[in-house]
Amino acid sequence: MPIRVFHAALAVSGMELPVEEVECLLANQIYKGFMKGYISHEKQTVVLSNVNAFPKLTERANPFATL
Predict the structure, then answer these.
(1) What mean pLDDT do residues 37-61 have?
(2) Taking Cα atoms as reference points, which of 4, 7, 63, 64 lies closest to residue 35?
(3) Which pLDDT score is estimated for 21?
(4) CA 65, CA 13: separation in Å to the nearest integer?
(5) Are 45 and 3 in contact (CB under 8 A)?
(6) What is the DSSP string of the chain?
(7) Contact 48, 3 (CB under 8 A)
């Protein structure tokens, strides 16, 4: 899914952010376990997992447990 799609969705909701910041937000969502996938910076796309791309909050690992 192109990062521009997420950028447009945020713009419609009233959040005017640069594309770079949207990419950062997506990276943080993946890191925290809210989304499963990776970002292809070269192609400016987010590749989501075919299985359970958006896990339930109870299923995701706590990224802060190791701090």
Answers:
(1) 87
(2) 63
(3) 96
(4) 32
(5) yes
(6) -BHHHHHHHHHHTT----HHHHHHHHHHHHHHTSS-EEEETTTTEEEE-SS-SS--TTTS--TTTT-
(7) no
- What is the distance between the alpha carbons of residues 52 and 55, in angstroms, rounded to a whole number? 6
User: 3, exposed or middle or buried, with CB in 10 Å at 0-12, 13-18, 19+?
Assistant: buried
pLDDT at 32: 85
Q: What is the pLDDT of residues 4-43, one digit of tens each?
A: 999 999 999 999 999 999 999 999 999 888 899 999 989 9
Q: What is residue 66's predicted lDDT score, i.e. its pLDDT?
A: 60
Q: What is the CATH number of domain 1-67?
A: 1.10.10.10
pLDDT at 61 over 90: no
Position 40, amino acid: S
